[in-house]
Amino acid sequence: MSERVYTREQVTLEAxxxxxxxxxxxxxxxxxxxxxxxxxxxxxxxxxxxxxxxxPNQAARSLRTSSSQLIGxxxxxTRDGINGAVLDRFLHALCEAADRxxxxxxxxxxxxxxxxxxxxxxxxxxxxVDGFALAGTHPGDARxxxxxxxxxxxxxxxxxxxxxxxxxxWVDVDGAAGTAAAVDHLVEQGHRRIAFLGWPAGSGVGDDxxxxxxxxxxxxQLPTRGLAARGEDGVTTGxxxxxxxxxxxxxxxGLVCASDSLALGAMGAVTxxxxxxxxxxxxxxxxxTPVAVAVSPGLSSVxxxxxxxxxxxxxxxxxxxxxxxxxxxxxxxxPDLIVRPSSTRSTPSLVPSx
Amino acid sequence: MSERVYTREQVTLEAxxxxxxxxxxxxxxxxxxxxxxxxxxxxxxxxxxxxxxxxPNQAARSLRTSSSQLIGxxxxxTRDGINGAVLDRFLHALCEAADRxxxxxxxxxxxxxxxxxxxxxxxxxxxxVDGFALAGTHPGDARxxxxxxxxxxxxxxxxxxxxxxxxxxWVDVDGAAGTAAAVDHLVEQGHRRIAFLGWPAGSGVGDDxxxxxxxxxxxxQLPTRGLAARGEDGVTTGxxxxxxxxxxxxxxxGLVCASDSLALGAMGAVTxxxxxxxxxxxxxxxxxTPVAVAVSPGLSSVxxxxxxxxxxxxxxxxxxxxxxxxxxxxxxxxPDLIVRPSSTRSTPSLVPSx
Lengths: 354, 354
Description:
Chain A is an alpha/beta fold. Helices cover 44% and strands 15% of the residues of chain A. Chain A has helices spanning 5-9, 13-20, 24-32, 39-52, 58-65, 85-100, 113-125, 142-149, 175-188, 205-219, 235-246, 260-272, 290-294, 306-322; strands at 70-75, 104-109, 131-135, 154-157, 170-173, 194-198, 228-230, 254-257, 282-286, 300-303, 330-333, 336-338. The first copy, chain A, has a 6-stranded parallel sheet, sandwiched between helices. Chain A has a 6-stranded mixed sheet with strand order 7-6-8-9-10-12, with helices on both faces. In chain A, α3 (24-32) crosses α4, α7 runs parallel beside α8 and α11 (235-246) packs across α12 (260-272). β2 of chain A pairs antiparallel with β2 (104-109) of chain B, so a sheet runs across the interface.
């Protein structure tokens, strides 16, 4: 058999109309304006559409309705594999959420933001997508500025960092609430010197996670001075930052980390000092990557509800596509702290605080 | 600004023809049949196309050429996160390879094979894609049978398991070569009783990895009896299988595992016996997931070159789309063994074999 089987067997509007003994316009109305038909006519038309398996040709329909039923999403180059995991989870969730709204996801590769904008431009000129989902927003984001200027339909997974008034609709996870919850949990475990391991200032996401730690530590009236250590993300950095913190005259016994990579390095530094993560030093990571479950002891971590984020994003985008005048929504979702042995003491209340 | 900017500013064929002072047919030829034009006419037409930024409307072009420039790919529901990582790596690589051939990837969600076939049917009826990439082939695969029967253009990442003669083109990684390399490596480290931890028989991929172990162990004239342990994939299973193997009167000192999950559980079982992974028992996993790098000691693992697989798959698909009569190709790619401390002895030659 040849691949042309689909072309040959393509059910036409005419065939459906003949089968239902109605006009082509009636079949078209049944599909696009059912309220125009009497109930029994609509039922007959629908029965014929279903029994012949008719679907309007997508290309012809795109021309007429300007709808491709596709959401464009740029896929980043593969990263170290630890921190890329959360974006991969988001992508799976995005496809499933899109499916429930009758959309598919058009994925395109781009090495950086400039290439991503070129990709948007190309897809729009070809009318290949109806709208966009974006991830990884950051201060001075040229991509969102480009799309917003043109009034194009898009929703970001990530806030418009550094903008006084949001220029677009967004969904995000409350990272500060996550690190604050990690601090509260470590305090409950009896820790009194709780440090933060994070990225250099200016990254939006990183600053947010830092602010949650700062807010919570202050709320507990605990020290903060000299307890925020920062460096580029990675296991090696986590090890170096924790080692430096441990060299202080009164070292921290709690470590809240902006990523599982940093936390993993920090756990290594704990072991190197002959201490036990959990019993001696409480360590909490961020993003609950597969590594957090796999390491021993298991790593406590802040989990982003990316499924909920994806569902909300697609709902907002579908709304926006149906009505261009809808006000840009802003949705902040609370994360979950997953507690594992790396931050748990066997008898928390009996352990003296340092 | 409204989103209609793209509609209003859409550059028409007429505008480009006017700008180049040629006919519309000439511009159309420049795009679709450049060999029909004299070099200077072609140059003038191209210059006008570029300077006005003209792109033929994708929907109109689809109707004419039946080409959407999209490759359909089904994304599986998120898995445990350890073994899902290799398919996520493949997806990134697929998008990048597709991009170099002028294609994007249309992702759709499906919970199982039957839903995946429904997805294919729907996309084909809507003419939304030009062809398909499939992953996760297995014996009695209804999806490939469905596509092959209809003569549709698709390439699988994975062999047609259990078929005497391949019914379609495929790209795959030689899993047996990977487990055989793991055995050779463990033998070099001084091990003489080398076990296999894998999945229940019948999974295609799992049987292939088992066969590589069996072949290599036999080639070294080492024992195999009672040394193949099988169970459902997972860390817990790996722990249970290794524990059982260690209870033998002469337990294995080398463990070749069909996945990093199994290997991770096996490493736990090694530690539980007061032994050291690497020095006492050599452990090798499969898929080189992020977890393999993160655990301590680092886990040796067989790495699938998914980037190479994706590039080859897209090349084969592009070839097939250009010429439906091309013979189905079969490409088997050798994997790489990544050696880490979990299978390395400090002085391999001095360690007596058990």
